Each structure stands twice: as structure tokens, then as C-alpha cells.
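Lab notebook: predicted structure, single chain.

Context: the supervisor wants predicted structures on file for every construct in the current expression panel, including those that have not yet been purified. This is the next one on the list. No modifications to the sequence; it matches the entry in the shared construct table.
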Amino acid sequence: MDATYVIVVRHGETHWNIEGRRQGHLDSTLTGKGYAQAKALSERFTPESCNAIYSSDLGRALETARIIAERTGHEVIADSRLRERNLGIFQGLNGDEIRERYPVEYEQHRNGGAEHAVPSGESFRAQTERNMLCLEELAQGHAGESIMVVTHGGVLSALFRHTLAISLDAPRRFSFKNASVNLFKYQDGIWGLETWGDVTHLTELGTLDLSYF
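Prediction complete. Output recorded below exactly as produced.
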């Protein structure tokens, strides 16, 4: 089977990103910086960069995808399977609020591993299976082409771990930046990583979060 190149993009910065609030299946709008990041991101692409653009149906990803599509001319195809992990009762709260309101559930979340689901939410394993089912379906349907997927940090984490055979229970020792470009290759049922965390489009415009460095 011919290879599919999958450009995976994380959405621009949101207000809840700044506040440290768990977004999950809830939503927070892009900040002014987030819009600038998405615009800078769009400048990297042309109509020839990909054959299709897919996105999570959550607003922060969808808005980022639409800004890119304004430049490339593609229709944005939304798919709920590309959503972030559902964090149930933690959604909308920051770390301090979670520890104060749900101390038991917080400790269970920290120590429960990939199988643990926050009340009213889903486990990391369930999220990963949902994400990978969608990504493999898209990759198989676009053999020999390039596609773009605009999504979330948790989805990038799931795909990264799957590609490099990192256990879902292993501590995360990698980062994923807002509006980053991550290139994967899919061929004969195997994922490969070509580029990770490319934010060169952000550096000149002051839209890169230098707190990472």
C-alpha cells in the first residue's frame, strides 16, 4: 500500500490553557495569541500541502482548522473521534480546584494508570483506542496522499506513544506545543514519526510560548 502522510496539528492557545483548566470535551475559545498562532500556522500551507483537512469537532480545534482552510481552500471535515479525552468531573477546573473538591478522585486519577476513568469521563486507553481507530481509518482511506488532522494534545500523546511503542502507563516525558506541526507516515499498517513539535512558524511572530525553554 502507498504511504499516507498525516500532518497532525495541535490547536492554538486557549484561555483555559493559560488558566491551567482541564478542557476535555468542554471548550474554551482561542486567545488573541491563539488566533495569531493559527494564522502563522496557516502561512505554512498551500492548497497543495494536503488532500484533505480533518478536525476534532471541539471549537478550539475546529477554529484553528478553519483558519488554515481559509488559506488552503479545503473543506474542514469534523470528526468527534478526534476529541480530547473526556475528563468528566474534572473538566473546567484547574489543578488546585480539583485537589480541593475531589481529593480522592484526584489521587485515583494520578495513580490509576491507563485503565482508570475519572467519574463521568473515560480512561486514557479508551481515548487512545477511539483516536487510533479514526486515525487509521483516515490514513487507509488516503493511501498515497497527504492529509491534515487538527486536534488536541492528548490525541498527539496517544499517537506518539502508539507509534513509538511507549506504554500508556509510562510517565509522559515529552511535550506538545500549541499550533505545532507533527508529521507521521502510515504504510502497511505501521506508523512512523517524521517530524515532532515543529513550531518554527511561530518564532518570528512572537507567538511561541518561551516558557517551554
